[in-house]
Amino acid sequence: MSADLDAFRSGYLAAFQGYLAGGGETGLESAYELGREAVAGELSLLELAGIHHEVLADCLASAPEGQLERVARAGTDFFRESLSTFEMIQRGFGEAQETARLEQRHAAQLRGLADAALALNSALSVEEMLAMLGERACAIVGADHSALRMAADGGDGPVRPVRERGRLIAPLIDRDEHALGLIELSGKHEGEFTDDDESILVQLAHMASVAIENARLYERERGIAMELQSNLLPEDLPEIPGVVADYRYSAGGDGEVGGDWFEVIPLAGGRVGMAIGDVVGRGLPAAKMMGHLRPALRAYALDGEAPALVAEHMARFVRTLDHDQMSTCVYAVLEPSTGDLRCSNAGHPPPLVLTGDGRADFLTGTPGLPLGVTTDYEYPELRATLAPGSTVLLYTDGLVEKRGEPLDVGLERLRKVAAGAQVEPLEELCERVLGALVKEAPGDDVALLAVRILSPDAGPLELELPAEPGVLSELRRRLGAWIVHAGASEQEAYDVVLATCEAAANAVEHAYGPSEAKFRVTAEAEEGEVRIEVRDHGAWRPQRDPRRGRGLGVMRELMDDVSVNSNDEGTNVRFRRRLREGRQHGRARAHRD
Amino acid sequence: MDELARIEIDQTPRGVIARISGEIDISNVGAVKRKLTDAVTSASPGLVVDVSGTTYLDSSGVYLLFELARALEGRQQQMCVVAPPTTPSTRVLLITGFDHIVPVTGTVEEAIEKVGPGAPAASA
């Protein structure tokens, strides 16, 4: 009997495919024939319906996107036709038609389910998924209302579907069979909820549960990683007398949290601790590791230990952690008043020291082992004496490493970019170095930390210059270098130089008397404020010359408390400018921008 | 001209483009003015002064640009200054209100649109 059924099934499939391909009357005739065959073969209605269902399912599965509706409708017509002979003998026509209608409805529901699966998996958040779930369930089952209830953590809800008068409830259950919540439908369009409705809703609820659970896990992990990352990137570096510091952080291309971190710590006796580190790897494990390393280093540093000892403590500490990640780290202590720099290096690229006269040298020496390799290791200490105006650059390997290239080449590239420059504000230096070495799409994370010693006596700048137009460019250079040492930002340096040179230009143009006229410029920096005085031996007449008025306007616009005093001895211009941007101005790039 | 500023002149059918790199202060402002004035013949539709490469521009430089624009206007010629937002010279042009008197644009292309043949005549 089953051999007969198989043969009938093959015939049915071929006939239905022919009908799908050709359509029209001829196609339906074959359906009519099939009905007769079924009667002759003494197939039951159930068997005929079963075969039709199998054939239709096959055809739906292989139907191209967009053809499902047509195939399903054709299936109904074809089945109805094949039944038309059959029903006269077996059952009433009405019942057969009802079966076909249900068949079509079920196909539409399955299609709705597939669409919903796709939509759920492309939803961005759990909220979005929940909203979508209710909407889709109503549409697929044909109900007016949906209600979603999410269980509180550990809450218990139904774990089996419930079908009662006017209501259909399916549970949302996670992998561990814990209730996530439930979805309830009511207001069925036609009649009561059926077995099919229940099975569809259960499947939909199941798919949604998986999607919701995945989304929650992802959101949670991402949230933790972000939180950790925000902890490892200081918003502002601390203000420490005698130094200025700036940093840049540039996130790698893939949007994952990287393993780079850094730290600037004010220490007892006016010393400055600075550190940079890199945990091998990315994502949550790397972020977690950093979350341990940063406070640990801070604690050891605040204890006042020498850099080599801090590195030893860190190495021991890392071995106690339940992660087998390696990490590298540089820790240095700078004494701003003497320029004494002591440093330990645990497998990290060497710090670069820039002097005020444009030299750039790596602080090399025996490199120590990375953290996490062994607990019993004595780290060597590197020492250097830095002149005022020198800058220590700490960075992570993303700045110098390139695939398929020896590290030396990258280091030399960094040295060349950083060397030779006039003293420039730190933000300019950081931007320039990052811009030159990290091309548009950085593969790895890059952290860059720059710490500069200001002149210990940040003493006033006193210049006496001949009252000639040609000296103004010299004044710009000397004042520009001085004000950078005083800790001004790029914009502040520009503004102060412009205002001072406007005053100086007036002094030059209005210098009277003996041929050897001179003017004086005094600049002082104290407590985050710059004070400038330009004094000449001429006299101003601001009202009568429109050009003079413009110069004074520029000064007033850029500086605070501009005063101009003239008497028999000459003219005196004074103004002040608060360095209100503070001394540090770190900026993180990419994601944090 | 001294080393402080370098001026590149580009004579195009749509106007003269002068690119100034370096610094302008009272020591060279006169020379810069002469060079710019000489570059614009009466046949030129107008002048574009590109200060995007000018690292220092003081009020004497701004005044020079203002005088130049006024002189050209008297000859029915247009002038436009190119100063992208991030360049140092832009700050002083804004502080002095220069951009209210003479058009300032971010690119040479926009500037040439303003001075070239067919550009609307200055209303002021």
Provide tags for this entry.
heterodimer; A: 593 residues; alpha+beta; 6-stranded mixed beta sheet; 5-stranded antiparallel beta sheet; 14 helices; elongated; disordered C terminus; B: 124 residues; alpha/beta; 5 helices; 6 strands
Could you please describe the fold and organization of this structure?
The complex is a heterodimer of chains A (593) and B (124). Chain A has 14 helices and 20 strands. Chain A is an alpha+beta fold and 593 residues long. In chain A, the strands form four sheets. Chain A has a six-stranded mixed β-sheet, with helices on one face. In chain A, β6 and β7 form a beta hairpin. The C terminus of chain A is likely disordered. Chain B is α/β, with parallel strands linked by helices. Chain B is built from five helices and six strands, in the order ββαββαβααβα. In chain B, strands 1, 2, 3, 4, 5 and 6 form a six-stranded mixed β-sheet that branches. The interface between A and B is medium-sized, with 21 and 16 residues.
Please state the average pLDDT score of chain B: 88
Low-pLDDT segments, ≥5 res of chain A? 582-593
Chain-averaged pLDDT of chain A: 81
Instruction: Give the helix/strand class of chain A.
Output: alpha+beta
Straight-line distance between termini of chain A: 74 Å
Question: Largest sheet of chain A, described in full?
Answer: 6 strands, mixed
Strand order of the largest sheet of chain A: 11-10-13-14-5-20
Could you give a quick summary of the protein structure above?
Chain A has 593 residues and is an alpha+beta fold. Chain A is built from 14 helices and 20 strands.
